[in-house]
Design a protein that fits this description.
The complex is a heterodimer of chains A (about 450) and B (about 800).
Chain A: H1 14-24, H2 31-36, H3 39-43, E1 58-64, H4 70-73, H5 78-82, E2 109-112, E3 117-120, H6 124-127, E4 133-140, H7 146-155, H8 165-173, E5 183-186, E6 206-208, H9 215-218, H10 229-249, H11 254-276, H12 284-290, H13 294-307, E7 312-317, H14 326-350, E8 357-362, E9 366-372, E10 376-380, E11 384-390, E12 397-399, E13 401-402, E14 409-411, E15 414-415, H15 416-426, E16 435-438, E17 441-444
Parallel strand pairs in A: 1-7, 1-8, 4-12, 4-15, 5-6, 5-7
Antiparallel strand pairs in A: 2-3, 4-11, 8-11, 9-10, 13-14, 16-17
Chain B: H1 2-9, H2 11-18, H3 29-45, H4 66-71, H5 88-93, H6 110-121, H7 147-150, H8 176-187, H9 198-210, H10 216-224, H11 230-240, H12 242-255, H13 276-287, H14 292-301, H15 317-320, H16 333-356, H17 375-386, E1 388-394, H18 400-432, H19 438-456, E2 464-476, E3 484-489, E4 495-498, E5 506-510, H20 533-541, H21 545-561, H22 582-594, H23 599-608, H24 620-625, E6 638-639, H25 642-653, H26 688-692, H27 711-719, H28 721-737, H29 741-753, H30 759-770, H31 777-788, H32 791-794, E7 795-796
Antiparallel strand pairs in B: 1-2, 2-3, 4-5, 6-7
Helix pairs in contact in B: 3-6, 8-22, 9-10, 9-11, 11-23, 12-13, 14-20, 16-17, 18-19, 21-22, 21-23, 25-28, 27-28, 28-29, 28-31, 29-30, 29-31, 30-31
Classes of the chains: A alpha/beta (about 450), B mainly alpha (about 800).
């Protein structure tokens, strides 16, 4: 019954295929002939595809909303302890809020793995994966407020109108599995991380709540309780025969097209999702590996999703905005994420998926080396840490350096645009060529900037 | 900017604020360093010659205020921030050659010299002098705003009537709108599209004006009506329908971010008892075509306008349903002040973006970076909010005692309840620690007695609404363990500038007044009547009326065409979009004011235009030139929003309960069959249907509705009980109506798509129905659902 070509994975011709598939579902309507006379229809909006051989085919973005403190996790700075309580005179460390003197991290750092990447004791499980991690300590952004900074990290712009990274990847590479959305966002999406912006509607994230683990509860109305599948199939066939000529008569209408695609995906999700989204099908050993909790479940689900061809999975984890009481609260947050992320990396590796799955961890900014409210840290976009793993990045390395207090990136600086350019590069996409024409100009994820960070490529 | 502001109103942030320890928020620590290590030395060793207290100031140099230190003395500047080696002061202190050795009675100790050096290195921060806004540190010194230049910006200029353009095809034009549109098309050598057929036209018009589909009979009548005024008659019929006010009222409720509760529902910000009166007031005001200037005035200040009936108090819900954040009284006054400032900020934002299309909230911490809006403008308006209290008010004539009780008692009860809870907690702790609980017992008894006493007064039981009254708010921190919000009825309040947005860093007091850019004098007239709400409203529809009219006309255009002329309807500033048809916007706005601010007249003109009546046909050549149809070479196709498609389905099934107004229902309940705008809108827990289908987040002003397309939406169409039940009901109806199978199919097409199926469609539909089980009702239901979820149904050509 599925007239869609579900093997057309990297769909450079997907739109053509899409229209053709519509027509083949309703022989005799002559849609193909009609389309044949409309070259503009076929040319517009084709999925761009890769520009060179990809190192990663899919991606998991672990987004830590609020801004995790890099100086407590990945960027040890002895000078903070040495000058504890003082204001560093050598550098302007002013941020949005009132801050005090240098606040030493009470957490021990240790050289981990064969290459001795330094990591905090707060992440004991992740320490075990050190040789897979590429820790980038010199990321810098522009804006100190959550909203614009999150927009910047997830979409390359501070204003809330542009497509998110996941939408760009979905647009650039299409979906690997026609039965599932190409871009799934788990947990409450913060700001624009689910947004498709001006990209066609089907590239918007499908946002899934993960508080409950049964797929039917996770995804509302996933099951039809009254119409059995065979009848619903006939219904969809009939719907296609209605929607196809409706679209054809109206020419190129992206909104109508997006809905047709979404309908097809939704229909197939009914069959695919109950299996794919059901982490209860995992073995007890695997579940134990990830541990318990919503974040653990999300990581496990993310693995199942990428394994089943979802191109981009974003996990949104909030609670990193530690303006006060950071020592206690960050430890708690780390207990929440440490084991699951380590498990995710281990699990992906065991299944041979880590080689072509890119994992990115990070927040919208880092935090100040100086204190706020006595025992917290303020936002700091001037220098902070993200890490990558898998899909074509060099493991077991730290890249870039912040100043002696960890406030500002000073060596091998990596802008957010550079980060995005690198991510796209690993996915086989030239960030300068992945464009979308909107409102009279070509837009890119990286705006007019961005350079691939070559030293971290494997 | 905008997003930055949004960040601040996030619940997360509030929780953060709410959980701050009650520490004093110190000045910037660089300034602290100055106060601790530099100033004392200046006082001890330098003031005798270099301050206002000196008998004669030596060398023209004073060191006792920030501005003077920066200015330097007769030898010029004495410090270059960040550059100790180039700073004369340090040379003098070091007794270097070429500089006067200071202090003359002996070099400072090494420690002090190092401190001075470090202070200059970190940029020589000095706290601003009290009461002098011009002596802030260099990086936040206010740059003056060029208001004269600002007033010349396109949206802030007075409206001038544009010349009606000459066009290629004047006969096509039905009115002035078409001239401007055609001028744009001519410029790109595009041609307009022919008029849509009548069925399409009436479906479009009906959804547009009332949010409901036309009936078959209405279409038949319109198609048969040979009168040249047939279309105009339909327009009048729909504008006169009470459903018009429901549709267009809902548009306005997005702007007003109307909701029936708060972002959280803790002790001090529980959902109000009543919410629907404001929503109903909006519907009625729009139905009776209350002139827009009055519509604005009443929403901000109905209580201050003489001669209005008390029922108009409901309009104040625009402010009365502003989000209220929890203010735990145990938090320090400083923190509570911060939370209160967030509330004011949200109100300023909604009022200024909503009515004026200006992002005034961006000027909270510093002058607006792009638009002619100063920080003083912000605090001038914030003062209005600081003098305005959200209270419940009667909608009928009562006495002042009743009114006061309604406003004050619930708040006092909440406070006493909180105190009681706290006292009980303390008592528990005392017992645990084996201390004497007696003081707490007495306190508990006392509080209980006071609560019982208060409860004796019965609150007004008649109709009421969430509204506002004039009452200045002072956050009272005199009891360090219990912060009290001291509202003083009838007493207005001017606020100081909060430097860098921080209430604990107050600058000079700013009198309440309207935005300076709308005044010809440097100092706009001060508000003098109460809080100044009415004067604010009068400014919006008075000196700012050009902008106000442009903003409103643009919104209305957007709600009709699916895309406004200015793509950022709540930002007419420099970072906003520029109009696709500037002269058209001027023309519409100018005549909107001249014609008495009538929305219905504006609708008539827009929907009566040849532009509006075009078909949405596809045309490859035009598409290539203007793919987004910005120039309107055809009608802009739209997708039904959640209210429209749900209401339409209920209408088609025949279960639509068309009772207007009154308390809201639960959208998730299958017994709720009223129009969607009567569903409860919650900030705390927005209905999942609304969330899934692009309903704007009512925590803040809704500029435009985003349009998303997700598989989750489609799962709702395939599988939700609402769709399935609706389809089954339709199937039952057609089966009861006729025994003729082909006729049943035709009937479903007519009911849902307002047309008969083609022969092809009919035979395929018959197959679908017949392929089902013997009892064919299920088959008809399947067909009905398919038609209901088809694109032909969901999109409006």
């Amino acid at each position: 019954m599925v007239v869609f070509d579900s093997t057309g994975t990297y769909p450079t011709e997907s739109r053509r295929g899409f229209l053709r598939s519509l027509s083949s579902g309703m022989a005799g309507l002559g849609l193909a002939g009609f389309l044949g006379t409309e070259p503009s229809l076929l040319a517009a909006g084709s999925v761009p595809g890769t520009h060179f051989a990809p190192r990663a085919k899919r991606m998991i973005f672990l987004f830590m909303a609020g801004g995790p403190s890099h100086v407590d996790l990945f960027d040890p700075k002895p000078a903070i302890r040495k000058f504890a309580g003082q204001r560093p005179g050598s550098t302007n460390i002013r941020t949005e809020r009132v801050t005090g003197g240098l606040l030493p991290s009470p957490f021990q750092f240790r050289q981990c793995g064969e290459n001795g990447v330094e990591m905090s004791e707060l992440l004991p499980h992740l320490q075990g994966c050190a040789d897979d991690l590429c820790v980038i300590r010199s990321v810098h952004a522009t804006n100190p407020n959550h909203g614009p900074a999150t927009n910047f990290m997830v979409s390359g712009r501070t204003d809330p109108t542009h497509p998110s990274l996941g939408a760009w990847v979905s647009y650039g590479l299409g979906t690997e599995n026609q039965d599932l959305p190409g871009f799934v966002s788990l947990g409450r999406a913060s700001f624009g991380s689910a947004r498709n912006g001006y990209l066609p509607g089907e590239h918007q994230a499908t946002t899934i709540g993960i508080e409950r683990s049964a797929p039917a509860q996770m995804i509302r109305h996933l099951k039809n309780l009254r119409i059995e599948p065979s009848r619903q199939e006939r219904q969809l066939e009939f719907l296609r025969t209605m929607n196809a000529p409706h679209l054809a008569e109206r020419g190129d209408d992206p909104l109508i097209e997006a809905r047709i695609r979404a309908m097809e995906t939704a229909f197939r999700m009914q069959t695919a999702a109950p299996r794919v989204f059901d982490i209860r099908q995992e073995t007890a050993a695997t579940r134990a590996l990830y541990g318990e909790g919503v974040f653990a479940d999300s990581c496990l689900l993310a693995r199942r999703l990428v394994e089943n061809g979802v191109r981009f999975v974003q996990i949104n984890n909030g609670g990193w905005d530690h303006h006060e009481n950071i020592n206690k609260d960050i430890a708690k947050k780390c207990r929440e994420i440490d084991r699951p992320i380590a498990a995710l990396l281990t699990d992906l590796k065991q299944r041979g998926l880590l080689d072509d799955t890119l994992v990115l961890w990070g927040g919208e900014f880092g935090r100040t080396p100086v204190s706020e409210n006595g025992d917290g840290r303020d936002h700091n976009p001037h220098g902070f840490t993200v890490f990558m793993a898998g899909g074509g990045v060099r493991g077991g390395m730290a890249h870039g350096v912040t100043d002696e207090f960890g406030f500002r990136a000073v060596e091998n600086r990596v802008s957010v645009h550079d980060l995005h350019a690198t991510v796209l590069h690993l996915l086989g996409v030239d960030h300068e060529r992945l464009t979308y024409r909107y409102s009279g100009r070509d837009f890119r994820l990286t705006d007019v900037a961005g350079e691939v960070v070559r030293p971290i490529l494997a | 900017m905008q997003a930055a502001r949004r960040t601040r109103i996030l619940v997360g942030f509030l929780l953060f604020i709410a959980s701050l320890p009650a520490v004093s928020r110190a000045q910037d620590s660089g300034e602290e360093f100055f106060e601790r290590s530099v100033r004392p030395v200046l006082v001890a060793r330098c003031y005798s010659c270099h301050s206002s207290s000196a008998k004669s100031v030596k060398g023209g140099l004073r060191l006792d205020n920030a501005a003077a230190i920066r200015r330097g003395g007769d030898s010029g500047e004495i410090i270059i921030p960040g550059k100790p080696d180039e700073s004369l002061l340090l040379e003098a202190l070091a007794h270097q050659d070429g500089a006067a050795a200071m202090p003359p009675d002996g070099k400072l100790p090494e420690k002090s010299l190092a401190d001075f050096r470090r202070w200059v290195e970190i940029g020589a921060p000095i706290p601003p002098d009290r009461g002098d806004s011009r002596s802030q540190s260099a990086d936040e010194a206010p740059k003056s705003i060029d208001f004269a230049k600002g007033r010349r910006f396109w949206s802030l200029r007075p409206i001038t009537e544009p010349k009606i353009p000459e066009v290629s095809d004047p006969r096509w034009c039905r009115g002035r709108i078409d001239r401007f549109i055609l001028q744009g098309l001519d410029g790109k050598r595009l041609t307009h599209s022919p008029e849509a057929d009548r069925r399409t036209l009436l479906r479009r018009l009906s959804f547009d004006l009332t949010g409901l589909p036309p009936t078959l009979e209405e279409i038949a009548r319109f198609e048969a009506d040979a009168s040249p005024l047939a279309y105009e008659r339909e327009v009048e019929r729909l504008l006169a329908s009470p459903h018009y006010g429901e549709r267009w009222g809902r548009h306005w409720l997005d702007v007003a971010r109307f909701a029936e509760d708060n972002n959280t529902g803790e002790a001090t910000n529980k959902a109000p008892r009543v919410a629907h009166p404001y929503r109903d007031w909006v519907i009625r005001a729009i139905n009776r075509d209350l002139p827009y200037d009055q519509f604005v005035r009443r929403q901000l200040a109905a209580d201050l306008i003489p001669g209005l009936p008390p029922s108009e108090i409901a309009g104040l819900g625009f402010l009365g349903h502003s989000p209220v954040y929890h203010k735990e009284p145990k938090l320090s006054a400083e923190i509570i002040t911060g939370i209160v400032a967030e509330e004011w900020d949200e109100r300023i934002d909604t009022v200024t973006r909503g009515f004026l299309g200006l992002t005034v909230a961006c000027a909270r911490c510093h002058d607006h970076k792009f638009d002619p809006i100063g920080t003083e403008d912000y605090y001038a308006i914030a003062g209005v909010m600081a003098g305005t209290q959200i209270v419940e008010r009667p909608l009928v004539e009562t006495d002042p005692v009743t009114e006061r009780a309604l406003a004050d008692l619930p708040r006092r009860l909440v406070d006493l309840d909180l105190r009681l809870g706290y006292a009980r907690e303390q008592r528990g702790v005392a017992i645990e620690q084996k201390q004497d609980p007696a003081p707490f017992d007495r306190r508990i008894a006392d509080l209980k007695a006071r609560i019982d006493e208060l409860k004796k007064t019965k609150l007004f039981a008649g109709p009421t609404a969430m509204a506002v009254r004039d009452a200045g708010l002072w956050v009272d921190g005199s009891d360090p363990s219990w912060t009290w919000l001291d509202y003083r009825p009838g007493i207005p309040r001017d606020l100081p500038v909060f430097r860098r947005g921080s209430p604990s860093n107050p600058g000079p007091i700013v009198p309440r007044r309207f935005l300076a850019v709308f005044s010809n004098s440097a100092e706009p007239p001060r508000f003098s009547k109460g809080s100044g709400r009415l004067e604010l409203a009068d400014g919006i529809v008075g000196s700012a009326r050009g902008l106000t009219a442009r903003v409103l006309v643009n919104r209305v255009w957007g709600w009709h065409f699916g895309r406004p002329l200015v793509a950022t309807p709540s930002n007419f500033g420099k970072l906003g979009d520029t109009p696709s048809h500037p002269e058209l916007l001027e023309d519409l706005a100018g005549r909107f004011i001249a014609g008495g601010w009538s929305l219905k007249a504006l609708h008539r003109e827009i929907v009566g235009s040849a532009t509006y009546r075009q078909s949405s046909r596809h045309d490859g050549a035009s598409q290539a030139i203007d793919p987004e149809n910005r120039l309107l070479w055809r009608a802009q196709r739209s997708r039904l929003d959640v209210e429209a498609w749900r209401d339409a389905i209920l209408a088609i099934v025949g279960t639509l309960d068309s009772r207007m107004e009154g308390p809201s229902g639960d959208l998730e309940s299958d017994r709720f069959t009223r129009r969607t705008l009567y569903a409860r809108v919650s900030r705390q827990r927005l209905s999942s249907v609304l969330q899934t289908f692009d309903f704007p987040d009512p925590k803040r002003h809704g500029e435009v509705r985003e349009q998303t397309t997700t598989p989750l939406q489609q799962l709702y169409f395939f599988n939700s009980p609402f769709l399935l039940t609706s389809a089954e009901s339709l199937a039952n109806q057609v089966c009861k109506e006729s025994t003729d199978l082909p006729e049943r199919v035709r009937s479903l097409y007519r009911r849902i798509l307002l047309r008969n199926p083609s022969a092809d469609e009919h035979s395929r539909a018959m197959q679908l129905v017949k392929s089902d089980a013997a009892d064919s009702r299920e088959g008809y239901a399947l067909l009905a659902q398919t038609l209901l979820i088809s694109n032909e149904f969901l999109f409006v050509d």
